[in-house]
Design goal:
Helices cover 2% and strands 49% of the residues.
Length: 580
């Protein structure tokens, strides 16, 4: 069974995904396989920030964008420039404040004829589509603060978050006058930040102050320091119309450090002497890289530094890389390192076996394709060491393997608005072991034998993703709450109270092509009651009693109960079990 490798963090469809990336941030850094190094610095839990906790970055389901407030949602007409940003970015991660050196941030500025400038989404982790306003000076771009950046409402009313100039300092704890902690507070020294214009045309925030988010003067855990904005004009490769991709190709990476070979399905096509490859980047499945094929030498040459496009708040590039593996005696582990190079990635092609092999640079033993935030620093969001690219032949069956149920849990005791949760695996291959395209895999849920429709009314986080209702769930769909995905693993929490059975079906959908697995159905104890056909309410009836014979609806976890099951034909089964 193939693992669905979710490495492009933004597949969760949330901005916080980029904060969770844990791959190496620096050039030529040694990495323990399966445990990528981190440059992220932890600053401890943020104190006294009720608005951020309440607002959940203004993405919470109870909140809507308020019309009131002096928020700039549209810039005046002017010259629009895209810019590639780098900075020390601060953000909340599991209720702690972290700092990371960030590259490849997507920024947009608007220059008006009257000397004003508008900067969109000035704090990189917050994609609110709002602007701060400044003016063009002889030195660069000058912004005065504070400026309102986002207004939101919840059950407690309306509140506004601001962008302000902050400094790092020690303050007295409001809970204990003898306790102090360090944080960022609005500075009294200046109310402005100048982005100095550099000789290369970029604008640099050279001050030691932070461009940060506040509420009533309290820092909310997000901000930028040493922000640099570089003019940026790259465009993705133009894909000619009429190209036909062969999607039978698989990239094999045997140097993952995860004790298994990563097999990634891709598409290869050729038109007008140019070879195009799609499907390599998991977060951007439609992105394409290109190369030239020498038919006499049977070599495919793929240039480095190819721009794939904007992904949420970052610009993504494909970069060629080289690497080494070795055994670390001190750690007692296999290690590997990689670095971006200017040279192209070259693959030799064997026409008899229909396999591509990488040309390894002398002195190294790995050849990488790296998907990188920007193209200045080694800052990857995904990477593959290419062992080979081969064709698995025509797909014989588009039906994915049957789902695997891990557990069903009664969660009402934790929150009475819920009933049960289910954990299960969805796999990425068919019964013949052929690999299916990850981005074409979905699943269905059946409640009491009926196809279940997820709605934004019941699952408000779906509405934040622009989904009103959905039955075919993309395999990588995750929300902030209730619907979770990480590779093969999935978890769903239900609020519906009349659940007796839960069914799961895996799907493959690609245009007119549709493949379906069998439906695996379990009861609320997690017992498999059917594979291939649905079990409805009328097919069986389950009742629960305590040891005194009293009927109970929701037994406590760990309690001993009597379970009585009556099937449609009248057969009765009684058993004593411990509620899990």
């Amino acid at each position: 069974m193939r693992k669905l490798l979710l490495t492009f963090a933004a597949a969760t469809l949330t901005m916080s995904a980029f904060a969770t990336l844990n791959v190496s941030r620096k050039s030529n850094v040694a990495v323990t396989p399966g445990t990528p190094s981190q440059s992220t610095q932890k600053f401890g839990a943020l104190k006294n920030t009720p608005v951020i906790e309440r607002a959940k970055l203004a993405k919470a389901s109870a909140m809507t964008r308020a019309e009131e407030g002096n928020i700039i949602t549209e810039a005046p007409e002017g010259k629009v420039e895209t810019m590639l940003g780098s900075s020390n970015t601060f953000y909340l991660y599991y209720d702690e404040v972290s700092m990371d050196e960030t590259y490849g941030i997507a920024y947009e500025g608007v220059w008006t004829d009257n000397g004003e400038v508008y900067l969109k989404n000035p704090v990189s982790m917050l994609d609110w589509d709002t602007y701060i306003k400044g003016k063009v000076t002889d030195e660069g771009l000058l912004f005065e603060f504070p400026q309102p950046i986002y207004t939101a409402t919840d059950e407690d009313g309306t509140f506004t978050l601001n962008v302000d100039v902050l400094e790092y300092t020690e303050v007295e704890s409001p809970d204990d006058p003898d306790e102090y902690y360090t944080t960022f507070i609005p500075t009294e020294e200046t109310r402005s930040i100048l982005f100095t214009k550099m000789e290369d045309g970029s604008y640099g925030m050279e001050t030691d102050y932070m461009l940060g988010i506040t509420f009533e003067g309290s820092w909310q855990g997000y901000g930028e320091m040493y922000l640099n904005l570089m003019p940026f004009e790259a465009t993705p490769a133009e894909i000619p119309t009429g190209i036909q991709y062969d999607y039978t190709y698989i990239l094999a990476d045997e140097f993952t450090g995860w004790d298994h070979t990563v097999l990634r399905p891709i598409g290869i096509g050729e038109l007008d002497g140019v070879t195009y490859i799609t499907g390599l980047a998991s977060g951007m499945p439609d992105a394409v890289i290109y190369g030239t094929f020498d038919k006499e030498k049977n070599t495919l040459t793929i240039p480095s530094d190819q721009f794939l496009g904007k992904y949420y708040n970052h610009y993504i590039f494909m970069m060629a890389g080289i690497g080494l593996t070795w055994y670390d005696e001190y750690r007692g582990e296999e290690m590997y390192s990689f670095d971006i190079v200017d040279e192209p990635l070259v693959l030799n092609y064997d026409p008899e076996t229909n396999v591509f092999y990488p040309v390894i640079k002398e002195g190294y033993n790995l050849s990488y394709v790296i998907f990188n935030f920007g193209n200045v620093e080694t800052y990857p969001c995904e990477y593959y060491a290419i062992d080979r690219i081969y064709s698995q032949g025509k797909i014989t069956d588009y039906a994915p393997l049957d789902p695997e149920v891990i557990a069903v849990s009664d969660i009402e005791f934790m929150d009475p608005t819920y009933s049960y949760s289910i954990e299960f695996n969805i796999f990425g291959d068919n019964k013949d072991g052929q690999i299916l395209m990850d981005n074409n895999i979905y699943y269905n849920i059946f409640i009491n034998g009926e196809l279940y429709t997820f709605t934004a009314e019941e699952y408000p986080d779906l509405g934040e993703l622009g989904i009103i209702e959905i039955t075919d769930i993309p395999v990588f769909l995750s929300t902030d709450e209730d619907i979770y995905s990480n590779g093969n693993y999935h978890g769903i929490a239900f609020k519906r109270k009349d659940i007796e059975t839960i069914g799961i079906r895996a799907l493959y959908i690609d245009g007119d092509i549709r493949g379906e697995s069998e439906i695996v159905t379990v009861n609320t104890y997690g017992e498999t009651v059917s594979v291939g056909s649905l079990v409805t309410n009328s097919s069986s009836k389950t009742e629960m009693f305590d040891l005194n014979g009293r009927k109970i609806a929701n037994p406590a976890k760990g309690s001993v109960i009597i379970k009585r099951t009556t099937t449609a034909d009248g057969n009765v089964t009684v058993e004593k079990i411990i509620k899990h």
